[in-house]
Amino acid sequence: MATVQKIYDFDPRNIPDNLLRAIGLMAMASAQTEAIVGQFIAAVLHLDEVEAIALTAHMSAPLKDQICRAVAELNAPSVDAIDELDDILDEIKTACEARNIVVHNSMTRDPETNEIFSYRSSARGSVMVSLQPVSVTEIEKDAGRIYEAGMALMTYMIKRRLAPQDRTKPIREPLNRKQTARKQRKGAGKPTNAV
After folding, report:
1. DSSP run (H or E) holding 123
2. Residue 193 belongs to a domain
3. pLDDT tens across 133-151, in order?
4. Is the dihedral of CA 121, 122, 126, 132 positive or negative?
5. Count of CB atoms within 10 A of residue 108's CB?
6. How many structural domains does the chain have?
7. Is 110 part of a structural domain of the chain?
8. d(Cα 195, Cα 186) in Å, to the nearest integer?
9. Enclosing H/E stretch for 127
10. How many whole angstroms separate alpha carbon 26 and alpha carbon 141?
11. Which of 5, 36, 103, 190 maximizes the CB count within 10 A of its CB?
12. 163 within some domain
C-alpha cells in the first residue's frame, strides 16, 4: 500500500499574524542594532552620520563587525576596552545569527496541525535539509536579544563619549551620475562645486 505524503503549505500569507509580527519585530531590532554598529564605526573614524551612511549602508554585517574590531583596536584607550567591545560584538554576532536563520529560510505550515516550521537548508560541504518548529515566543526572545545587544554597544559608546561628528557641510542633492548627465553638465558649462 502506498504511503500518502503530507503536503506542507509554503504560502507566507498563511503564516499566523502573531508570528509575522514577531518576525517583523526581529527585523526591526536587527536594523536598529546595525544602525548602532554604523554609528560606532563613524564615531571611531571621526565621521559624521551622513558619511557613516555613505560608508556602511551596503556593508554586510560580517564586514561591519570586522571593521568595528579593527578600528577599535587601533584607537581604544586600553586592552580592557577592546575586550569589553569584543564581548559586545560577539553577542551582536550570535544574536544576529538567530535572525539569519529566520529570515533566510522559508516557513511552512502543517495543514493538519497548523504548526509552523522553518524549512532550513544548507549546502556547505554536504546538503542538509530539515524542518524545525518555530514559536512566537522564541522569535520574540531572539528579537529582544538582538535589540539588547545593540543597546549594549550604545551604552559602551555613551560611557566613552563616542558619537559621530556633527555634520558641518550641507547635504548636496543627489546627482544624476550617469555618463549622459555628466556630458550634459560639461557641455552646458555649468560650474562644478568642489567636494
Report:
1. strand 116-124
2. no
3. 999 999 999 999 999 999 9
4. negative
5. 21
6. 1
7. no
8. 17
9. strand 126-133
10. 9
11. 36
12. yes
Q: Which domain range does residue 142 map to?
A: 12-104+135-169
Q: Are 107 and 116 in contact (CB under 8 A)?
A: yes
The pLDDT tens digits of the residues spanning 53-67 come to: 999 999 999 999 999
Say what the pTM is: 0.83
Query: Given the C-alpha cell 544576529, which residue does it identify?
Result: 96
Helix axes 79-103, 17-45, angle to 10 degrees: 150
Mean pLDDT, the chain, whole residue set: 91
Reading the block at residue 75, the C-alpha cell is: 584607537
pLDDT of residue 173: 86
Amino acid at 179: Q
Which strands, in side-by-side order, build the sheet including 116-124?
Answer: 106-109, 116-124, 126-133
pLDDT band at residue 193, thresholds of 50, 70 and 90? low
